[in-house]
Amino acid sequence: MIKGLQHQTTYFALQTLCGRKYAAFSPGASILHMAIEDLLTENLVRRIEFGFGAPKQRHHAGSAALEVATVLLMRKTIANRIRAGIHTTFFSAVRLAKMIRDQRNQTLQIALPLMVLMN
Questions:
Q1: 73 φ/ψ angles, rounded to the nearest 5 degrees
Q2: In a designed cystine with 80, which of 15, 74, 76, 104 is the match (CB 3.0 to 4.6 A)?
Q3: What is the DSSP letter of 42?
Q4: CA atoms within 13 Å, Cβ hemisphere of 43
Q5: CB-count exposure of residue 31 (10 Å: 0-12, 13-18, 19+)
Q6: How far apart are CA 72 and CA 106, in angstroms?
Q7: How far apart are CA 110 and CA 108, in angstroms?
Q8: Which residues contact 31 (CB under 8 A, 6 or more apart)?
């Protein structure tokens, strides 16, 4: 049995459950493939999310691996707090620059057709 949740067109596969006495036959892989087939043939979902991290046993059921998050662990020292502050400031500046760029591109997309009409 696969324990999971569905939200709109995404199914979140949380856990594969099976009896220990059947472990030698790899029932988890069979159950997983049967569940994927069922979900896709019934058009219930468009995406199956297996969560993050690496499973105990590698499986090749997924077609893509997505980076969900990057985590940096640092000790609470003054130097590391300064580094974290610089990091936050840099990425805030990048985000601000992208917002300005996008607003500028939107303005240009509106202005260019108007200039053509005026000429």
A1: -100, 130
A2: 74
A3: T
A4: 0
A5: middle
A6: 35
A7: 5
A8: 1, 2, 16, 18
Nearest to 13 by CA among 41, 44, 47: 47
CA–CA gap between residue 72 and residue 87 (Å, rounded): 11
| 6: three-class secondary structure by DSSP | strand
Dist CA 38 CA 34 (whole Å): 6
Q: Which residue(s) pair with 48 in the sheet?
A: 11
Alpha-carbon distance of 103 to 97, in angstroms, equals 10
Kindly state the helix (H) or strand (E) to which residue 38 belongs, with its residue range.
helix 27-41
Q: Which of 16, 20, 44 is nearest to 30 (CA)?
A: 16
Q: In the structure encoding, which two tokens stand for residue 63, read together?
A: 């077609």
Neighbouring-strand partners of residue 7: 10
Size of the chain, expressed as the number of residues it contains: 119
Q: Which residues pair with 11 in a beta bridge?
A: 6, 48
Q: What is the pLDDT of residues 60-111, one digit of tens each?
A: 555 556 666 667 778 889 999 999 999 999 999 999 999 998 888 877 666 5
